[in-house]
Amino acid sequence: MSEVTTSRNTITLQDAKEWTKLWQGNNPNHCKAFLIPAEDLTEVLKEMNILVQHPNGTYVLDENKLPNAGIRSYMAIDTTDGPGKDNGYGEKLVIVGTTYSDKTKVHSDIIKNQQDPTSKDSGIYDFTQPCPSTCDVTSPLFN
Fold first, then answer.
1. Contact, 95 vs 129, CB < 8 A?
2. Distance between CA 89 and CA 110 in Å, rounded?
3. How high is the pLDDT of residue 25?
4. Residue 61 phi/psi, 5° resolution?
5. Is the distance from CB of 12 to CB of 3 less than 8 angstroms?
6. How far apart are CA 46 and CA 60, in angstroms?
7. DSSP code of residue 115
8. CA 99 to CA 44: how far, in whole Å?
9. Burial of 83 from C-beta contacts in 10 A (0-12 / 13-18 / 19+)
10. Helix, strand, coil shares of the chain as percentages rounded to 5?
11. pTM of the model
12. Average pLDDT by stretches of 10, the chain with 143 residues
């Protein structure tokens, strides 16, 4: 990396440009990006009890749970009809929360109705909007 970053999980703009250009160049018929609404992402964090609601209605981040928690994204194709699919872009990110097991050393997917067959909520989220058609064409990462 050519720049020093302030967070251990960020990358430089130069690396991001190189990586996205490589993906977009090698995969011209696939999505360039996905828009993930922040509101929906917080739903995953609440489900994982990382964002905890206090009685006064505010949310607090439980930093003690962060080292053993993660969110996994699966690439998927939605074949149902709908907006944005007229150009053949049915690509999606299917997102699940995970928990880490010290015993297995693996992040396991949290799938509610697999763990509790009476649950009507799966804990599996698809709230992404593919680019195209929701692209920021002015972004330096859009090639």
1. no
2. 27
3. 92
4. -80, 125
5. yes
6. 10
7. H
8. 12
9. exposed
10. 25, 25, 50
11. 0.69
12. 54 88 90 84 87 92 86 82 54 83 86 65 72 84 85
